[in-house]
Design goal:
The complex is a heterodimer of chains A (151) and B (103).
Chain A lengths: L1 H18 L3 H21 L3 H25 L9 H15 L1 H4 L14 H8 L1 H27 L1
Helix pairs in contact in A: 1-2, 1-4, 2-3
Chain B lengths: L2 H18 L3 H23 L3 H32 L4 H17 L1
Helix pairs in contact in B: 1-2, 2-3
The chains are: A mainly alpha (151), B mainly alpha (103).
């Protein structure tokens, strides 16, 4: 039952994020989408995925709140309760197929490999390359800021 | 409860938003929804295989990099044209081009 509630919350918050007029409310709804996704991962036992989703979500929401005020145009019209209710209803209706239709076959997944083993034995090289890329970006930002301060 | 169907619904909502919204921030939100749909399908289909979570880190890195580039482009475009509305940006761009051609 909890997964059904989370699925409905996920779809409803996604629809509200797209179709609400006020940018700040849209970003708040997007935060809800990230939160529901992280909760679905966590309750299914994918704890690392939940943590990563949560952290990436917080970063995106923080940047969007800052840029939303800067880029978003002020709308005079306020969202009517009827429109919001309609969006929520549409979200509930759209999430119904996920309860009644099934297409995935869980038996096709491969052997269970622990995440630590998968991370280091199978993906060691690209984890190191990613770390190198992130380090390069951080150094680049530092150099740009230093040059700007010198000017 | 089928998470593949759920992620297909999320993908459909994201693509619909991408095609119909004229505000740049809403376009960005649509791209985020598409990324959530991809990762949701990826994790829930392959779980409990740890490889899915390990590969998810790569997906999140790519998603974050894409988000950063899109946000940077949004800021540049909205500073250049003074608006975040795609239709206004296109009309301003066209009027600038006609001015250049007239000169």
């Amino acid at each position: 039952m909890i997964f059904e509630i989370l699925a409905v919350g996920l779809i409803v918050s996604a629809i509200l994020a797209l179709f609400l007029d006020e940018v700040v409310y849209s970003v708040a709804a997007l935060a809800g989408t990230f939160l529901f996704t992280a909760l679905i991962y966590y309750l299914n036992g994918a704890i690392y995925a939940a943590i990563f989703q949560f952290v990436v979500g917080i970063g995106t929401i923080a940047v969007l709140f800052l840029s939303g005020e800067m880029l978003g145009e002020k709308t005079q019209k306020k969202a009517s309760p009827a429109k919001t209710g309609g969006l929520i209803g549409a979200g509930i209706l759209l999430s119904l197929p996920a309860f009644f239709i099934s297409v995935s076959d869980q038996a096709t997944t491969g052997p269970d490999i622990p995440i630590g083993e998968a991370l280091w034995n199978l993906r060691g090289i690209d984890v190191l390359v990613q770390a190198l890329v992130i380090l390069t970006i951080a150094l680049g930002i530092g150099i740009v800021l230093y040059e700007r301060r010198k000017k | 409860m089928d998470f593949t169907i759920l992620s297909i619904i999320m993908l459909a909502i994201g693509i619909y938003g991408l095609l119909t919204n004229r505000q740049l921030l809403k376009v960005f939100i649509s791209i985020e929804l598409i990324a959530i749909a991809g990762t949701l399908n990826f994790v829930m289909l392959a779980y409990p295989n740890g490889l899915s979570e390990a590969l998810l880190i790569l997906a999140f890195s790519a998603d974050t990099a894409v988000s950063a580039v899109i946000l940077a482009l949004l800021v540049i475009v909205s500073k250049r044209y003074g608006t975040g509305d795609l239709s206004k940006i296109i009309s301003k761009q066209e009027s600038e081009e006609t001015e250049v051609e007239a000169q």
